[in-house]
Amino acid sequence: MRVGVPTESKIDEYRIAITPAGVRELTARGHDVLVQAGAGAGSAIADAEFVAQGARIIDDAPALFAEAELVLKVKEPQAHEVPWLRPDHTLFTYLHLAAEPELARGLQQSGATCIAYETVEDADGRLPLLAPMSEVAGKIATQAGAFMLEKPLGGRGILLGGVPGVAAATVLVIGGGAVGMNAALIAIGMQADVFVFDSSIDKLRELDIVFAGRASTVFSSTLAIEQMLPMADLVIGAVLVHGARAPHVVTRAQLSLMRQHAVLVDVSIDQGGCFETSRPTTHSDPTFEVDGITHYCVTNMPGAVPITSTYALTNATLPYVLELADHGPAEALERSSALRMGLNVRDGEIIHPAVAEALGV
């Protein structure tokens, strides 16, 4: 199979969807790997490293799409890329279609088979291709929040960990999955006063053991969040409903409960955002203010640390890439229930039920 890996064109995106190790595995199985020139530069991988493992370098994206059968990306196709997709293409990437109706329509019209990393689900209900980027995003969320709390950046002017004689900042983490747990662990390491909210008692029990008493766990309810917002310096939204739009856990009216120049970090922004006032931002222009509250809503947080993120992502995706390449998309989807859960669009139809519901189709 001809496997194409284009340069990511989303703003401030520096990851690439394959590493030289992945190229080696594919070419050793007889597959033809096409990598766009310079695609690995943002992750400090030179074209020569791909060539050394058997890849062919293609000068531009249209030529790569024209020749490829399986297209591997990191982020969703941008508007100029969608017309390059054909019915015989299989696209494997993050899509987050619940918050992107226009992109969904474009993918439907392309006729391509589109499999989303974020909805690939194993037999235990886990999301193996979302997990590594959730871990990265959770850690970045706390780092970014701590930075944005500094006065020159528009924050309250408080140090997350405080100092002897001065209280630490209060951090609320809403959602106890991979993002929330990693965000909390970094906040704990920075010596903040940390509260983690989740609606699952079993999850809270697990987190209580992981945190070893260094953070408080709270059963998540509207009232519990409202009662804590007046004390919060940093709120990290880490809410996920598989494939669907994120629910709003903080409304605009509730912003009035918060301290002026407190910070909201919305890690759920790819799925529409879990704060009512959230809107997508970029690493180049990461924040905006609503009612005196700083919002950080970067849609590709892991893209800021591409060396870490590229290797973490491709370590997870490679087994599925090999399955698609070795067996072809039709047979691979038949063989793998995990890949079937990842199928979002095929033959012009929205396939994933949660995505379909979110899009109203």
Strand content: 15-25%
CATH class of the largest domain: Alpha Beta
| Whole-number mean pLDDT | 96
Which strand order do you get reading across the main beta sheet? 3-2-1-4-5-6-14-15
Main pleated sheet: 8 strands, mixed
Which class of secondary structure composition applies to the elements? alpha/beta
What does this structure look like?
By secondary structure, this protein is of the alpha/beta class. The chain folds into 2 domains: 2-127 and 306-359, NAD(P)-binding Rossmann-like Domain (Rossmann fold); 131-304, NAD(P)-binding Rossmann-like Domain (Rossmann fold, 3-Layer(aba) Sandwich), CATH 3.40.50.720. The protein is 35% helix and 17% strand. Strands 3-2-1-4-5-6-14-15 form an 8-stranded mixed β-sheet, sandwiched between helices. Helix 4 (101-110) links the parallel strand 5 (90-93) and strand 6 (113-116). Helix 5 (131-148) crosses helix 6 (178-189). It is globular, with a radius of gyration of 21 Å. The mean pLDDT is 96.
